[in-house]
Amino acid sequence: MTEPSLLRIGDLAAATGTKIVTIRYYEKIGLLPAPPRTGGNYRAYSTTHRERLSFIRRSRALGFTLDEIRELLELSADTERDCAAVDRLVTSHLVEVEDKIADLQRLASELRRMKESCRGGTIDDCRIIEALSSQPTLP
Amino acid sequence: MTEPSLLRIGDLAAATGTKIVTIRYYEKIGLLPAPPRTGGNYRAYSTTHRERLSFIRRSRALGFTLDEIRELLELSADTERDCAAVDRLVTSHLVEVEDKIADLQRLASELRRMKESCRGGTIDDCRIIEALSSQPTLP
DNA sequence: CTTGACCCTATAGTGGCTAGAGGGTGCAGC
DNA sequence: GCTGCACCCTCTAGCCACTATAGGGTCAAG
After folding, report:
1. Chain A window 41-70: which residues touch B at a Cβ cutoff of 8 Å?
2. Residue A61 burial (CB count, 10 A)
3. Which nucleotide is nearest to B56 (CA to C1')?
4. Rounded distance between C-alpha atoms, residue B39 and residue A43, angstroms
5. How far apart are the C-alpha atoms of B105 and A105, rounded to whole Å?
6. Dist CA B8 CA A132 (whole Å)
7. Contact by Cβ (8 Å): A64, A93
8. Could you tell me which of A101, A91, A5 has the C-alpha nearest to residue A46?
9. How far is CA B63 from the centre of its chain?
10. Could you give the C-alpha distances from B24 to A46, A115, B12, B34, in angstroms and in order?
11. Which of A84, A128, B14, B44 has its CA 20 to 30 A from that of B1?
């Protein structure tokens, strides 16, 4: 009996909101194991693959790098292990995200300041261009 | 008389807080014009180059893409032009930055929620791993 | 058989750098 | 003049996470 839960790559893509080329990419870099093939050389994915790919995509959506996801997958497979390592990964990632937010907020403030200095006119009187041209270079 | 303001690439790099390889990269992609060379094939940069590179670096620091900077440079060279185009570039960039901040804040909230659900223990009881494994996949 | 939807591999590209290999130049000190 | 060190040069490939494209095969309905 043909296993009804085996998926072709397009089905898996639809089921997980992933592009087909991205699935192939993940296989290439070893993040997703290569599945068995049909007689026609089509990939045949099981539920296990679908679950793993969903995990990957959720983690990506949360901004984890592929290497971090690799680590999370390894941790998740080790069911007897203490989950402090997972906590540490999430914590450090959260810190990075918060740092990035702070950076962007500083950047946004400066852009707003520049915008507010603009009074219209021509380029040779442009306060924005002036700001980009004349402030001391930050190291 | 040798022009005292001519800089070697290392000097220009130091003066503008840019890496040498980055200066060469900008020249390669046409963002910074190729300077004249010494007899020994060293690049000889003028004040004009330094000013242009400073402009580029300030714009990069504000998160503008190289293509946007290309556009800003063109606008800044057209001194009789109305500066509304500059304003528009800055505005749309600010919107992008604000959108990115909002995205990251949503992401940070979710990571915090995940962290707070963690009660320690082993992986098979790990709420973080559960969250990554079981939520409905977002399209 | 034909056709259209789907699948396959391989390669190169995106953006903004960055690293490294292999070789040349300039100048101070001996 | 020679040496050694700091600097310069070109070229190529790589980083990260995809993404596009070329060229060809498979499958199933009509």
Report:
1. 51, 54-55, 57-59, 61-63
2. 15
3. C16
4. 61
5. 11
6. 23
7. yes
8. A5
9. 4
10. 49, 32, 11, 9
11. B14
The ipTM, to two decimals, is: 0.85
Contact B64/B93 with Cβ under 8 angstroms?
yes
Coil, strand or helix at A57: helix
Whether residue B87 contacts residue A115, with contact meaning beta carbons closer than 8 Å, is answered with yes
Is there contact between A93 and strand D, defined as CB under 7 Å from any strand atom?
A: no
DSSP alpha helices (H): ranges in A6-83?
A: 9-16, 20-28, 47-61, 66-77
